[in-house]
Amino acid sequence: MSVNDFQLTETPLLSRSSVGRAEELRSDAAALTTGWADALLLRVNSRGQVKVSPEGQLVFAEAPELGPEPVRGAVFLGIRENRHVWAVRVSLLAGTLSELRMLGGTLDDADAGLLTGAVAILNWHDSAGFSAIDGAPSEPTMSGWSRISTSTGHEEFPRTDPAVICLVHDGGDRVLLARQPTWPQRRFSILAGFVEAGESLETCVVREIKEEVGIDVHSVRYLGSQPWPFPRSVMLGFAAIGDPAAPLLFADGEIAEGTWFTKDEVRAALELGDWGSEADAPLLLPGSISIARGMLESWVK
Fold it and tell me: pTM (2 decimals)?
């Protein structure tokens, strides 16, 4: 395989869900009430934190503790090992807490998928309390997977914002990494941006790279995707080829610094850990739950 044809070597950590969503049950009130009797409940506070065990695993509550049937605001996540699983937003949460950015790499496939889905859908509900069409208050329905306007009955579904993330390389040994103005020195990642209305993903890649660092790219290829519920995005991974001789221009203010790094430099940075490393090194890279890291790991092999 040539360097131009590299693929993701592993499934992104937040894309590993192994729990069936059982969407056919979302409007089946009788089945949901029956399943509620022994359902698991994932409580998520407003900061996206959940209760974890001393071993760092998710701690589920028993759903019937909230009442004999599904409560308003709870979201049906699916079925795990023959038990229904629900998520609910809470204001207070006691015990040892953690959140998806910290837990994503340590959870099994089922829990990683459940927590990712819970955070994403609850974030949407937090910002969707009023209809985007008529401005009236809206109420959750379909066991949390849609909302209905209390004025017109207009139904709205969870919003996910698509964003492209692109590994720009030179077709050989170098990759372009950049740092946003708010990031500390030495912390770099690959380039990303939101898809605009009426825009294809490939066109977005070319536009975003040009806007952020001023260079033209070609040979745009899709690699894979990952949900990114911060607050409610999906990251669509691409690779593209650019010219290291082209001048870098940071015209839109979103990038403070950009540099071409070699494979050896990226390998050394990956061995140091992630952005949290205290190593005195010129390059630190994103953590394991980011698709950016998986793309870089795949590229250097």
Answer: 0.93
